[in-house]
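Changelog excerpt

This revision adds worked examples to the README so contributors can see how folded entries look when concatenated. The first example is reproduced verbatim below.
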Amino acid sequence: MRATFRMDIATNYTVAQMLHPHDDSHAYRFCPRCGGPLERRVVKASEPERLVCSACGFVFYLDPKIAVGTIIRSESGRLVLVRRAIEPGYGKWVFPGGYVDRGEPLTLAAVREAREECGLDIRLDALVNIYSYAGRAPVIVVYAATVLGGTLLVDDESLEAAEIETSAIPWNDLAFRSTSEALRAYLNGVRHPIPS
């Protein structure tokens, strides 16, 4: 049983690696508790199908993944964008952002991601909006921010970082729907107080 269980975990990991990181609902085939096969079942009539272990009955809930992004205005009034060096969206432009770690406050994650992705220290000014889409795992929380210091640079997830005039935003070369929608909202003056 132990050897089979280890092989099942390896199979889960291999399948998860092959799929797009935002679409992992079909990546799980075996129970994380006992190694039994997972199958889709309706647990409650009012809810969608869930993954349920056919051996022990464990319900494996697939929760959303929380990401943060920051639309950063530089001292010159331009917006900071980075060009992605990873999939999804390789070679496309986004504002700095990334996933929130378990237990990490959203605002601290936004500041951390800005520092990691483009080398800038920022002040969060407002919440622009929160984006989620049917059938997609990420929930994206986007903030408006101002540069406080640092030096614009790239990390290993970016090909390029740039300050871009609002009139020169590469609308047809943005990585994600949320990137485009958040930038449009920001340029239209959408700002909400940051919940404390």
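The second example, added in the same revision:
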Amino acid sequence: MIVAKNAMDRLLRAAAQARRRAYAPYSGFRVGAAVLADGRVYAAVNVENSSFPLSVCAERNAVAAAIAGGARHVEAIAIVGGDSRPTPPCGGCRQVLAEFASSEAPVVYGTEAGNRVSTTLGALLPRAFGPSDLRAPVGPEEGGSTSSSAARAPGMRRRSRR
């Protein structure tokens, strides 16, 4: 999918504006993110918590806002975090983005000073694990188990033995 440069600039501005409202009293590392989904921009911030594992990244919050707004597909992503250099999304956020965006989805991450890096989600998370991996049967030749007690995702059918 091709997203116009002006749309990516608009996303980056939305992420920078959101960043100013981030709640980061412990790390001081404020992040704003914006996603384009169904033609709409959804911006969000990181929200820290004194119980650190409960903190949530801006990228995941932006995706959640898009989903809450009825979107199911993210077309493009912008992130503004860090002051001295553009900061890419963390691994967990890359995985969440891969759930809702194609590997060709453009990603731009930058600083409020205007430094930016443009890439794609596929370049940030090559060979991502995704929904199709849960639907594909796994047999012993692929490192899986054929044991009847093997765990399966809900809704997956057991592979028949022949």
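Reviewer comment on example two: DSSP finds five helices and five strands in the chain. The helical segments are 5-19, 58-68, 91-100, 121-124, 131-135.
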